[in-house]
Amino acid sequence: MPTPKSSSHIRFAAVGDIHVQKDAGGSLRSLFAQANEEADALLLCGDLTDYGTEEEARVLAEELGAVHIPIVAVLGNHDYESGTPEVVTSTLAHVGVRVLDGSVCEIQGVGIAGVKGFGGGFGRGALGAWGEPAIKLFVQEALNEAMKLESALAKLRTRRRIALLHYSPVVGTVEGEPMEIFPFLGSSRLEDPLVRYPIDAVFHGHAHRGTLRARTISGVPVYNVAKPLLQRSRPDVAPFFLYELPREPADAKTPSAP
Ligand SMILES: [Fe+2]
Ligand SMILES: [Fe+2]
To answer: Is the C-alpha dihedral spanning 20, 21, 25, 27 positive or negative?
Structure first.
């Protein structure tokens, strides 16, 4: 039974890891049509395609034809596999998808900052920038993504804010995966900006066998909306996560940072 839209709240439908393949035409239309019915915006948390090819991105763009609400996305590691993430981005941008990469957008008074993120591990187990150049490069990539997230969050002036990632910023939503691969599922370095800036919720994917909900150390809710996880943990409902925020008056902005 679809949940009707509300005049007092803005509702987001979030899902990641749809991994569209070239022969997937028609398989996602009804899911997207339902999200279009129930939500005010659709959030896509990376691994939009399986191999990051133009062909797959075109199939996804076609499937998204059922969606008339705003669509905001970040890319995932799979969207980089063919070495042409910009083609995935431009193919989707062509049908109106806002693909964020250290950038922001605003949907009905809610600010959204988006970045792919990267791995490196969590807490005391996080990889340090020490030793071989390859290790330092790996760590630097996570730091770069965290910095992009921070500068995106710094740009937002809305009172309500959401962060969109592919990799996880916290260990809580990757639990359920084999512990050996935790370091490849996300990085605590992505949590730092989420603690420093006011934010209502964080959405990510990538950990297909992780945990749906956790929190940052400052208490911000983090949702792992990887489609395989949603399907497994809630088999009776459509595999997108509905999240609501109260609607804000049009002029509700926070003052600029000094
Ligand atoms: Fe994935
Ligand atoms: Fe992924």
So the answer is: negative
The first and second tokens of residue 251, run together, are 């002029």
Ligand with the closest atom to the CA of 50? 1
**From CA 129, how far away is CA 138, in angstroms rounded?**
8
pLDDT at 233: 96
Residue 247 CA to ligand 1 centre (angstroms): 32
Which ligand is nearest the CA of 76, by number? 2
**Nearest Cα to 88, choosing from 121, 127, 126, 48?**
48
Measured in angstroms, how far is the CA atom of residue 160 from the centroid of ligand 2? 27
User: Separation of 204 CA from ligand 2 center, angstroms?
Assistant: 10
**CA–centroid distance, residue 17 to ligand 1 (Å):** 4
The 10s digit of each residue's pLDDT in 18-77 is: 999 999 999 999 999 999 999 999 999 999 999 999 999 999 999 999 899 999 999 999
Neighbouring C-beta atoms of residue 202, cutoff 10 Å: 28
